[in-house]
Amino acid sequence: MLYIRTDMNPSIATGHMMRCLSIADAAASLGEDVTFILADSEALGLIQERGYQAVVLHTKWDDMDSELDALYQVIQEKRIKALLIDSYMVTKSYLQALAKWTKTAYIDDRNTFVYPVHILICYANYWQKFKYSQNYKETKLLLGTQYVPLRKDFHGLKRNEVKSRLENILLMSGGSDKFHILPQFLKRLNCSKYKAVDVICGTYCTDYEQLSREYGQNRNIHIHKSVNDIKDYMLRADAAISAGGTTLYELCACGTPTITYSFADNQLDNVRQFAQDGLMDYLGDIRFEDVSEKAALVLEQYEQQYELREQRIRGMQELVDGGGAARIAKELIGMNCNSKHN
Predict the structure, then answer these.
(1) What is the rounded CA–CA span in Å between residue 215 and residue 233?
(2) Which end of the chain is more exposed for a tag (fewer CB within 10 A), N or C?
(3) pLDDT of 157-174, one tens digit each?
C-alpha cells in the first residue's frame, strides 16, 4: 500500500493533488493500492471519483505540525511503511518526526531547507540551481524533467503537424484565476481571426459562469471548466497561453507552442527557465503588470514564425516524455517494499 499526504483547496488550488493523482495512477497500474491522507474533506470527492481511498485527519492544512499526533495514529493503525508528502506547508520538525515513524519521500521545487527525507523529488526544469548533491549524502535524489509526474496519457506523444498559421488557441489559468486574467485575454486578443479559442477554467475559477454567459453564443470561443481530457485540447491547439506550473510540462509533452505568465512566487523560476532555454515566451507577472496586450503581440509574432514554432515543439518534447509518474511510482514502491519500519 502506498500512502500520499497532500491537500487541495481554493487557497492552494489543484496542482499538488493532480500530480499526486498521476503518481497514484502509475502506482495502481503497477499493482499497488493507494490511499490518500488529507487534512480536510475538500478533495475527498475527487479522490473517490478516481477510485482511491482516503483518510481525513480533520486538521488544519496550513499548520501541519499540529497534525502530527493524528498522523502518528494513522501511521500506527495502518502500519504505513512509506509515505509521499506533497505540501509547501511542511516544516523541518514535521519531516524529522515522520522520518522516525516511516520511510518518507517529498516533492520539492523551492529548496526551502534541507529536507530530512529518504527520497527527494524535484522535477523542475531549474533543479540544478539548488545544488542538491552538496546537501544530500544519504537521501536518494530523483532530479530533472524525466520525473515530471504527468498522467499516463501524456506518455510518448508526438506532434507531427505544424500549421503555417495559428487556427486553434488555448487559454488556461490553472486551478483558479483570482486575478481574472482569462477575461482580460479574451478582451485583448483578436479572437475573431482564429478558428477556435478554447478557454479552460479550473476547479476554483470564479469567472466561469460570467464567461459562459458572455461568450456562450460566440461561434469560435468555447468556455470549459475542469475538463478531464485536457490533453486533447492541448494537442488540438496551435498555440497556448498558460500560467506557470505543471501545466507547462503537459504542454511540453504535447508539443504545444506556449506563451506563459506567472501569478505566484513559486512559478517564477519555472517560467523564467523555460524562457531562458528558448522554449517559451514569458509575458510577465500578472500581479504587477498588464500582460494581456503583450500576449496579443506575441501571438501575432508566432503567426509569422513557423520555423520557431517547429523548433520549440521539438525542444519541448525532448525535455518531457511523459513517463515521470511511472518512474516515481517504481521508486516509491521499492521504498515501500524495502522499508524496515513497522
Answers:
(1) 18
(2) C
(3) 988 789 999 999 999 998
